[in-house]
TrEMBL record:
MF terms in GO: DNA binding; DNA-binding transcription factor activity
Protein location: Cytoplasm; Nucleus
Protein name per the record: SH2 domain-containing protein
Family to which the UniProt record says this protein belongs: Belongs to the transcription factor STAT family.
Length: 586
């Protein structure tokens, strides 16, 4: 093969791949192929069976020819048969390779991109699928390597019969397949907040984990040959990434920010694939940067790869992560744009592409559910560990309520401009002059929605996870739901209209419905669970919607504290019957 750079083909993992050329081949011994894949998708089984059947005929013919039992007059005929089989194998091997890379792995990478905005549990479920894909790659890799080994022996015995050209075609298939089996198996988050306000902000991400993984490759010795090999990581701008798409030799290094750790080593545990783990990654500024100038840029992690395998194949190139933002302090609008990019842009097949103008109802419903779950579980401090547990899922009612607020058209398509600009709530803001005067400001969907998720994260996570908060519904719907209740019941929901407020809709024993609200700042003083138990407005409420016993769920109401009443003059008990504190609970 030539020694020029091979650029990213029709499929690339997660974002972009850049590949340099392989070296020349060497020989190894022939071994029996593995059995057909078990417990994998049916399409792969069909394709792999076709490859395995042809390989078996090829192997039997090669073994017979090399056994010395074929007379000289018949060797040419058998050799011709072997070459015809090899030509057929090139076709079916190419088909199986393309299926594994262009269908199986590409589909996984596209799903990885969309799920990268979700909870750790959501991402971990997709990550587990790599184990099955790894086995599929192993099955195909074994057939491919053993075919090349058989051809190597034939070339040694019959060097003048054009077998080298056939071998090099398989060599090309192997090089392509092995290079694209190296993937960014764990992506950086869409937004990394660094410095300033980030230290006390819920979207602060002081650390994150990424990973480079080799799928399959055991038959080619990738795991045994490259254990301990160093992988360097650089933080580059998307402009540099675009240059690398055109020229894999484009010079680069850390730009504007430093990434730590700057390197890792490939390791292999028993029964697992070869991995280079970059744990607790952090971003540090190289120089003083303006917040606004940084917020408009996108960055990528670039991993420098150089691995060796059997048959003299060298895998040299760069693996580039999905793009992300590095913010000096939090900016919700930038986070929203990156959310749309990760959720809806085709970054796997079209690196650094733009988001589409519209998406379907189902796509939007799935994306906003995952984003809410991710914000809700974000740690408050950098040393907190997020438990990998299944988050609370949205009901169909919740999805419909939220997506309807984005005004889908008659074809159930949602304009992404609606997500960023459509006003759904209002916020009263006090003027900076110091007076109590203020004005109402319209709040777009993304800002209202992210604020609700933040409130759940800071104040209501346990109640939300336990199903005690109904969540997203309007005033009329809440009243309709409570009218069907036979006992006194309250329903906790997020205000559709008033930014950052929690609404408590109550149906009392007489069937009268009333509404109360709390600003999210009220919850700094006392948690909502304690407030509901202590506030006399809810003293006669028996259930939390739909029929959850309120005292059992929240821990029981506090008994009246008598030591605050005068004791020494011993007034009569009825003295306090019609008295109460004038101040509210806050």
């Amino acid at each position: 093969m030539h020694n020029g750079m091979v650029s990213s083909p029709e499929f690339g993992n997660s974002a972009m791949d850049y590949m340099d050329s392989p070296a020349q081949s060497s020989s190894i011994s022939t071994q029996s192929p593995a059995g057909t894949a078990a417990a994998v998708d049916s399409q792969f089984v069909v394709k792999h069976n076709a490859s395995a059947e042809l390989y078996q005929m090829f192997k039997e013919s090669v073994d017979l020819l090399l056994s010395g039992k074929v007379i000289i007059q018949e060797q040419a005929l058998l050799l011709s048969k072997i070459m015809n089989l090899a030509a057929e194998m090139q076709i079916v091997f190419e088909d199986e390779k393309q299926y594994l890379l262009g269908d199986v792995l590409c589909s996984w990478a596209m799903k990885q991109q969309k799920l990268s905005i979700g909870s750790l549990w959501t991402q971990s479920m997709n990550y587990r699928d790599l184990d099955m894909i790894h086995h599929q790659f192993e099955y195909f890799g074994e057939l491919l390597e053993q075919t090349m080994s058989g051809l190597t022996y034939l070339i040694e015995r019959y060097p003048e019969h054009g077998l080298h050209d056939i071998y090099m075609k398989f060599h090309h298939i192997a090089h392509y397949f092995l290079y694209y089996s190296i993937i960014v198996s764990k992506q950086p988050p869409s937004v990394v907040v660094k410095c300033g306000e980030a230290e006390n902000h819920r979207r602060s991400r002081f650390w994150f984990d990424t990973e480079i993984r080799v799928l399959g490759g055991s038959a080619f010795g990738l795991d045994s040959t490259n254990e301990g090999i160093e992988v360097k990581c650089f933080l580059i701008t998307d402009d540099t990434a675009k240059q690398l798409l055109k020229n894999a030799y484009h010079p680069f290094g850390n730009e504007e920010f430093l990434i730590s750790p700057p390197s890792s080593n490939f390791q292999k545990k028993s029964g697992h694939s070869l991995k280079a783990k970059f744990d607790d990654m952090r971003v540090a500024k190289k120089d003083t940067l303006r917040r606004d100038s940084v917020a408009t840029k996108r960055y990528c992690l670039c991993y420098d790869i150089h691995l060796r395998s059997k048959h003299g194949i060298e895998l040299i190139g760069k693996k580039v992560s999905l793009p992300f933002a590095v913010l000096v302090g939090p900016k919700t609008d930038v986070e929203a744009k990156l959310f749309l990019e990760r959720s809806f842009a085709d970054l796997v097949r079209k690196p650094l592409s733009e988001i589409p103008p519209t998406v379907s109802y189902d796509e939007m419903a799935s994306a906003i559910e995952m984003k809410f779950q991710a914000i809700a579980e974000t740690p408050q401090k950098s040393n907190e560990i997020i438990p990998v547990i299944q988050p609370r899922m949205f009901t169909n009612q919740t999805k419909h309520h939220l997506v309807s607020r984005l005004k889908p058209n008659a074809a159930a398509q949602i304009s992404l401009e609606q997500f960023m600009k459509h006003p759904v709530a209002e916020e009263y803001t006090v003027k900076k002059s110091g007076s109590n005067d203020g004005e109402w400001k319209l709040v777009p969907f993304y800002e209202w929605y992210f604020k609700v998720a933040e409130i759940v994260n800071k104040y209501l996570y346990t109640m939300w996870s336990n199903g005690l908060i109904f969540g997203f519904c309007g005033k009329d719907e809440a009243e309709h739901l409570l009218r069907a209740c036979s006992r006194s019941t309250l329903l906790i929901r997020f205000s559709d209209i008033e930014y950052g407020k929690i609404k408590i809709t109550v149906r009392d024993k007489a069937g009268v419905i009333r509404h109360h609200w709390y600003d999210h700042t009220d919850l700094n003083g006392r948690g909502l669970a304690k407030e509901l138990l202590a506030n006399p407005k809810f003293s006669e409420v028996e259930c939390i919607y739909p029929n959850i016993n309120m005292e059992v769920a929240l821990g029981g109401r506090q008994k009246p504290v008598d030591n605050r009443k005068p004791r020494f003059l011993q007034p009569t008990p009825v003295y306090f019957d019609n008295q109460g504190a004038a101040t509210s609970a806050f």
